[in-house]
Design brief:
The chain is 57% helix and 9% strand. It has 143 residues and is mostly helical. The strands form two sheets. A three-stranded parallel β-sheet has the order 1-4-5. A two-stranded parallel ribbon has the order 2-3.
């Protein structure tokens, strides 16, 4: 198994200490759940986590975000973007996530935006799923 987290999942993890997104991010950070990310995707994680609204809602500081990003950077598999395309999806940021998943050979793309990705991830052998679905499967030993 190798996952790619959409930015919405990373932000949700920062906002809620008890949700599936936090569980997945913690497992990735601990090196228990293999994940991959490209440099552009990591930069997007950082930018959205450091938005003033996100910082205010989480009570975190920019330095706290740096710790999270550094932890992720040390545990995720770096994805060189050898195949680039644009646009396949309506949102350029979604294209960036799908590119990372496809180039990494990921098995799962974890997102809240299933409708936006449609069936396109499956064309690359990637299953798009909700954080709660993957967390449940992991907890039940199905993955």
């Amino acid at each position: 198994m190798l996952i790619v987290l959409d930015t919405d999942v990373v932000v949700a993890a920062a906002l809620s200490p008890t949700e599936a997104s936090r569980y997945l991010l913690r497992e990735v950070g601990l090196g228990m759940l293999p994940a991959a990310a490209s440099v552009p995707l990591m930069l997007e994680y950082e930018a959205l986590l450091k938005e003033p609204e996100t910082l205010a809602r989480t009570g975190a500081s920019a330095a706290d975000v740096d710790v999270v990003i550094d932890t992720l950077a040390s545990t995720v598999r770096p994805v060189p973007l050898s195949v680039l395309w644009h646009p396949l999806l309506r949102d350029h940021d979604d294209d960036m996530v799908l590119e990372a998943a496809a180039n990494a050979g990921a098995t799962h793309l974890v997102t809240f935006n299933l409708r936006d990705f449609g069936d396109l991830p499956a064309r690359f052998g990637v299953e798009a799923c909700l954080p709660c679905e993957l967390a449940r499967r992991l907890r039940d030993g199905q993955e």
